[in-house]
Amino acid sequence: MLSRRTKELFFQVAGPAMRMNGLIYKNLRAPRQGTVRVHLGPGQRNYLPGWINVDANMFTAKCDVWTDLRHALPFHDGSVDAFYSHHVIEHLPSMEAHFADVIRCLKPGGYYRTGGPNGDAAIRKFSQNDTAWFGSFPDDRRSIGGRFENFIFCRREHVTILTASFLEELLQQAGFVDIKVCMPSRDTHVPTMFADCLKLEAESDFENPHTLIVEARKPAVTPN
Ligand SMILES: C[S@@+](CC[C@H](N)C(=O)[O-])C[C@H]1O[C@@H](n2cnc3c(N)ncnc32)[C@H](O)[C@@H]1O
């Protein structure tokens, strides 16, 4: 895993080129019609064929669009049927800004499936002193506190804690409706859109999933 400093340096150096690349993509290539599904942050192994895969990592990630998700998404207003992100939003400096931009890009009635480290389950497991639930990534920790810190902050890679109520609050604030936690997490309320995504989501604990997954919909008609 690259150090936080190296990643910050990468974003500083490559940031302007990524923004420019996003703008060029939006103006020259971003689809305006047809079914459009966008996968944010696929990383090295989770490229989804048939989706537009977007990532900042030009070295190891496999993607179709190289851009920085901390800035406006390179898609036209109301042009995307579905967005998917898995273990990405906890890296972004503003989930509020991200959700507002996702809803801008979605077609009326479009969906977002998103999720990351499950803060609710982690707090339960911390209270139960269940060190085995946490594992020891990225740092080798034996204590429950050390493992909890690993899980929540991941060597300061994560800038927030994802809990169901917090995600619901922010998604609602952005204008989403039908906000549902997926339980078990490898399930979907919208199989026509997200069936492809489920095979990417490894989960070993279905009672206390390590990943909190939420689905939400942009209203079909935007209220005045
Ligand atoms: C923890 S990995 C998750 C990868 C994959 N989705 C998974 O579940 O295994 C986070 C991914 O988000 C990407 N990412 C993080 N911050 C980003 C940003 N600001 N812009 C674009 N991609 C970003 C990283 O490059 C990486 O591929």
Largest sheet: 7 strands, mixed
N- and C-termini, Cα separation? 46 Å
N-to-C order of helices and strands? HEEEEHEHHHHEHE
Task: Give me the Rg, rounded.
Answer: 17 Å
Give the strand line-up of the largest sheet. 3-2-1-4-5-7-6
Portion of residues in beta strands equals 15-25%
What is the general shape? globular
Mean pLDDT over the full residue set: 95
Total number of beta strands: 7
Query: What helical percentage do the residues reach?
Result: 25-40%
Which ligands does the model contain, each kind named once? S-adenosylmethionine
Helix and strand content put the structural class at alpha/beta
Low-confidence stretches: none
Question: If you had to describe this structure to a student in words, what would you say it looks like?
Answer:
Helix content is 35%, strand content 18%. The protein contains seven helices and seven strands, in the order αββββαβααααβαβ. Strands 3-2-1-4-5-7-6 form a seven-stranded mixed β-sheet, sandwiched between helices. The chain starts with a helix and ends in a 7-residue tail after the last strand. The site of S-adenosylmethionine (SAM) has 15 residues, from loops.
Describe the protein's topology.
Blueprint: H1 4-28, E1 37-40, E2 52-55, E3 65-66, E4 80-86, H2 95-105, E5 106-117, H3 119-127, H4 131-134, H5 144-153, H6 164-174, E6 177-181, H7 191-198, E7 211-217
Parallel strand pairs: 1-2, 1-4, 2-3, 4-5
Antiparallel strand pairs: 5-7, 6-7
Bound molecules: S-adenosylmethionine.
S-adenosylmethionine is lined by residues 41-43, 46, 55-57, 61, 68-70, 86-88, 91.
